[in-house]
Amino acid sequence: MMDWVTGKEIAEKIADDLKKKILFSKQKLILKIFLVGDDPASQIYVKKKQEFCRQVGIETQVEKFTAEVSFNHLKKKLLLANQSKILTAILIQLPLPQKLSEKKVLALIDPKKDADCLHPKNFGLFCQYGFAQAPVLPATALAVMKILKKKKIKLSGCQVTIVGNSNIVGKPLAMMLSEAGATVVLCQKKTKNLAQHTLMADIVITATGVKGLIKKNMLKKGVGIIDIGITREGKKVFGDVDLKEIDDLEGWITPVPGGVGPVTVAVLAENVWKLSLKNQRGKIF
User: Fold this and answer.
1) CA–CA distance, 46 with 206 (Å, rounded to integer)
2) What confidence score (pLDDT) does residue 282 get?
């Protein structure tokens, strides 16, 4: 039978530790979130981030824009946030409307206030030097690593297949896992003979947003599955894994929702705290 691994306990532990640190420091931490467009999923994610930050003592400021906002107007607002002496960190809620260039918008964030390692300078530092040099690490990828640590997975020599090669999840996660000694195969949702790669994996991590992409015949006995994909159909939420098929398969899986999501939100708040410390000590750039 499949064992369900939620992120609730990890997120609660981070919340407890973070709340104590912030309270003891007596610092005022403020996370500025830019929300562009009216994507329902993005609105839900922002609310969850606000709720967690409030719980641990981080203030959030959400600035909303219509999907028709011009790049120049958004640029002006971002530059003002960069210059603000009271803001600790900045987050651009993704995805952005198609008319806006994600790369150009993310490059506007002050690297010293980049809450999710999305600025090209920070991401480049992470890619070249790993954990040691990046101010903070990509939140979702680090959340996955925390779940694997909680499961006491020995990553050295472990075969991991990642499905989905985004800059937010797939690419940084592949680097983290490789640095930890795992053998990593990075696939995409349209990879030919995808099952050939997932069947040999001790751990399958999927983040494509394609409902039911991963089926029972693509997984081996005893596999660990981390499902980060999200598909919304009305009020229902589905992951990438076809749960109806795998219920009797031996192994473990993170649910959607309630798996990686809560840990990602907690890590993001933790990143705000880390940016505060590093900026205070003058250790960023």
Assistant:
1) 22
2) 61
